[in-house]
Design goal:
Elements (H helix, E strand, L loop, with lengths): L1 H95 L14 E6 L10 E8 L2 E6 L2 E6 L2 H10 L1 E6 L2 E32 L8 H13 L9 E7 L4 E6 L13 E6 L2 E32 L8 H13 L8 E6 L4 E6 L4
Antiparallel strand pairs: 1-2, 2-6, 3-12, 4-10, 4-11, 5-6, 6-8, 6-10, 7-8, 9-10
């Protein structure tokens, strides 16, 4: 009986051990699977980390190259700024010493713009006039060309875009090229003229064998007692015997108004009458100086006009008729210029 009980106990222990062994094997298999999955995840994380690291390095290198280029460009800009500052300082130094730009301007019409009120700078009833000046731009027109200026700039631009036109000239079909009309360099500016209300300039003073002090006194007396309007109490007389000129400054503002329309002034001295040339004292300066250049919006240039048997006026009429027709994309022509022989100079202003 005792032996049977011991055998049963041993058998139970063996079963328990086998079961524990089976459980351990299952745990080991499960652990191995977890280990494999963990290794796979670790490999993925390492690959991701390596990719991100490469991306960071590539991005940093790109930023470093960009920063290098920006620094290089910045240094170049600093050098350019320094050079411009040196040039500006040099120009300012030259201008501070009275530097002037001299440019020959062809004779042109000066257009009166307006009068300006003078309060602080010129308190002596001075007159400040402003004139507008714009140089005309010459263009040499040859016998194979014509210039057309339209009333509507859209017509001119439309014809330029078309480029070519077939025109009937003297029963011949001519292929004319339409080009934009480019203006050469021109200048414009405002001319400010201030006419003094207290000072006049006198010239052609007679050369008399008397002391300069006497001549100054006689000039002062004559202009103080002026019978031709204007004048009054004289503040100062500046007289130059060599140039036979004088400058008369009055005490009263507006005293020079009577001399504006009087070029010749009767001057009585030593029992004789002389004629003095009187002019207002003026201060002239230029403002708003501008250079302009560009393409005329309303004018087109025609090229390729061949010689015909018709006279100049007839050819010009045929060109004008063609480009006035809306069916030819034309419109109303303001002016046309064509020469049948040689060449001619045509002048334009900025707003042509």
């Amino acid at each position: 009986m005792l032996m049977l009980s011991s055998a049963v106990t041993a058998l139970e222990k063996v079963e328990k051990a086998e079961k524990a062994k089976a459980d351990l094997l299952l745990c080991k298999i499960s652990a191995n699977e977890e280990f494999v999955r963990a290794e796979e995840e670790l490999m993925k994380l390492k690959d991701l980390q390596e990719k991100q690291h490469k991306k960071i390095i590539t991005s940093r290198e790109a930023h470093e190259r960009e920063l290098y280029l920006l620094n290089q460009e910045n240094n170049e800009l600093k050098s350019a700024i320094k050079k411009l500052e040196e040039e500006l300082a040099e120009c300012s130094s030259v201008l501070s010493h009275g530097f002037q730009i001299k440019k020959e301007v062809a004779e042109t019409t000066v257009k009166f713009s307006h009068l300006e009120d003078v309060q602080c700078d010129y308190p002596d009833m001075n007159t400040h006039c402003v004139f507008g000046v714009a140089t005309q731009i010459p263009f040499r027109l040859t016998q194979t060309q014509a210039l057309l200026t339209f009333e509507d700039e859209q017509v001119a631009q439309r014809l330029v875009q078309m480029g070519k036109h077939t025109v009937n000239l003297d029963e011949k079909r001519a292929e004319l090229r339409v080009k934009p009309f480019t203006l050469e360099m021109g200048i414009k500016f405002e001319l400010h003229v201030t006419i003094s209300g207290r000072k006049i300039n006198v010239s052609e003073v007679p050369d008399l064998p008397i002391p300069e002090e006497w001549m100054r006194d006689k000039l002062e007396l004559n202009f103080y007692k002026s019978e031709q309007g204007g004048g009054g109490e004289v503040e100062n007389v500046s007289y130059d015997k060599q140039s036979r000129t004088a400058a008369i400054t009055f005490r009263t503002p507006g005293a020079t108004n009577g001399f504006v329309r009087c070029n010749k002034y009767r001057f009585f001295v030593n029992g004789r009458f002389y004629r003095l040339f009187v002019s207002p004292d003026t201060n002239v300066h230029m403002e708003k100086f501008q250079l302009f250049q560009g393409i005329s919006k309303k004018t087109i240039l025609l090229e390729g006009i061949e010689e015909t048997d018709d006279d100049e006026e007839s050819v010009q009429d045929m060109i004008e008729i063609h480009f006035q027709k809306p069916s030819n994309s034309g419109g109303e022509i303001e002016k046309i210029k064509y020469v049948s022989e040689g060449a001619a100079w045509v002048c334009f202003e900025e707003d042509s």
